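--- STAGE predict ---
source: upstream dedup step, 1 unique chain passed
mode: sequence only
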Amino acid sequence: MAEASVRLLGVSKRFGSVTAVDDVDLDVFSGEFLSVIGPSGCGKTTTMRLIAGLDQPETGEIIIRGLHMEGIPPYQRNIGLVFQSFALFPHLNVIKNTEFGLRMRGKSPREREEKALNALRQVGMEELAWREIDQLSGGQRQRVALARALVVEPALILLDEPLGSLDAKLRIEMQSELKSLQRHMGITFIHVSHNQGEALVMADRIAVMNEGRFEQIDSPETIYNEPQTRFVAEFVGRNNIFDGQVSRLSDGLAKVETAQGEFLVNAGGRSLATGQAVTFVVRADLMRPRLGAETVGENSITGVVKGLEYAGSVILVVLDLGDGRELKMEQHESLSRGRSALRHGARFTVDWSADDCHLLPEVPGAGDPHDGPT
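--- STAGE serialize ---
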């Protein structure tokens, strides 16, 4: 197993009566790109500030490259920071912005220039070293901010919503560039964002945070395909979540009774009992439209089309199942060619197989077990 570059052991942080970070443990491995995602106020930025030394924990330990950080100020932690605003100095040109950290460390002008040019070279900005900041595009400013973080040869780089101020097209381009640079340099990156798409594209592992705790830390594939809690299933991707009770078991399949009827679920080797409350998840992109009498899986459900969202090549269909419940189906646009377009108010049936169902390991803690999909 790779060596841990950063370790958080039982770390907590409170602001008055609010617990922002609640007794968390985390290992970030050397050379890893870790993304911490979650909704606003979940504690992800506070976690980053604790690692950087901008805030101090009430309890727990923070260890960076084997050194305990208690009492160590930010400027002695050898960490590079990249913020959403980039925080570049408008009165300094590119190279002066890049070498700023070295100037604060008392390095000579010659050493500052040499190292700054090398850092700019790494991010493809050496030719623009003498340009003014206000003459740069958003993507170029992002690269300068990254070069300024790199120039001090940090043990790790913390990125707080680094792409948040870029337009959609540039954000997609910079996702690939950031990941490529990180792989090339081999530096540990901790990336904080509310944007799950960024994390799924760039991260080696994702830590999903909620109310000051990590709900799940896993690879992007596992987070997306096998959420371990209801919150993760609701926050990452587009999932349909069903609550119900096991009514029958046979040959590794569980028949689960919900408000919408009974559905077959692959138990995945789990030991279930008749009458047991369970929650299962079906991704929106695993739902398939029923065409005529054709069925594509053991399960089906019918609703009324209440929403159609076109996102490039993907169509999101939202069905009204009654009683305020909805079901989401994603379909590639090319699969609908040659068929009559869906209309709002039309009745529509979707199918899915028992193998498309993912059982959550937790038992619903509250509410009617027949709540149906959410």
